[in-house]
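Deviation from plan, reported transparently: guanosine-5'-diphosphate complex.
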Amino acid sequence: MASWFGRIRDGLAKTARQIRERLGETVGIEADASVRPAGRATGVERIETFDALEDAMIAADVGLPATAKIVEAVRDDGRGSLGERVGRVMQRILTDVPAAPAISTRPHVILVVGVNGTGKTTTVGKLANFYHSNGQSVLVCAADTFRAAAVEQLAIWVERAQADFIRAQSGADPAAVSFDAVAAAKARGRDVVIVDTAGRLHTRTNLMAELDKIRRVVAREVEGAPHEVLLVLDATVGQNGLVQAREFMAASGANGIVLTKLDGTAKGGVAVAIAHELKLPIRYLGVGEAIDDLVPFDAGAYVDALFTDK
Ligand code: GDP
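Because the crystal trials were delayed, the predicted structure below was used instead.
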């Protein structure tokens, strides 16, 4: 199995290739400090490189506001190669977000929210596996009681992750199921509870009300819960996911992002757009369909994967 960094690099391979194609040779070339007044970029760079840079950032789905910020910062920072300069500002954007909450309560309660099809259920299974691999006991709750097939799929992954599983009868109240799950985890001394919530789009108002109710109900059972609300976004959707994300943030109090399907897209720059626009930390990347295809996000590794040669 590839290292954790190798897996981030593989997941970002399409995005990196596209950016490099658009930037061509310039990505690794040092700006010539001798002809650059007061640390600013050279005239030649200004004309050719910045157009290419803007083009590459937009194509990678970094989005207009973050692209403008990157181009401006690169213009003002003449130290190192273009790749290094872009990498530095990207890393700043990615880390200029609130820190992830520490695990300080048992059970640590995580709600996983997002629209159906983004990879939410798969992510819940992967997360259960992730915590189990790190020596923590996990209880998974299927609060999405209307998708029998998804629940069956999740049950298989939960078993492989050696986690407990609480599932409700079809049509049961998701908040009540979540409450039961958290209570059970408390009674059994489990370290982590992961709740897979519903993601139907056609009843948006009900969905948001339901998420809000789940939050309130679990807060009654465990202090500070939910400690994490992870919003799952599909990287292949790119910028369009941001509108959705804002709505979920408001209703669910999302405080972290899982960016899935990175392996299938050249739009991996959307991570930068998300951090810049939503001011939320990217917590994990989904880099494939298998149970262990989830890697913790690291801004330094992300930037290296895009701009540093192996
Ligand atoms: P949900 O409807 O949001 O719960 O989505 P699912 O978890 O059922 O996933 C939808 C599809 O996306 C499935 O075919 C998954 O295998 C696939 N998927 C989920 N995460 C990833 C990922 O990180 N990479 C790839 N390539 N596929 C993924």
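The pocket of guanosine-5'-diphosphate is lined by residues 116-122, 150, 199, 260-261, 263-264, 286-289, 293 (CB under 6 Å). We consider this an acceptable substitute for the interim report.
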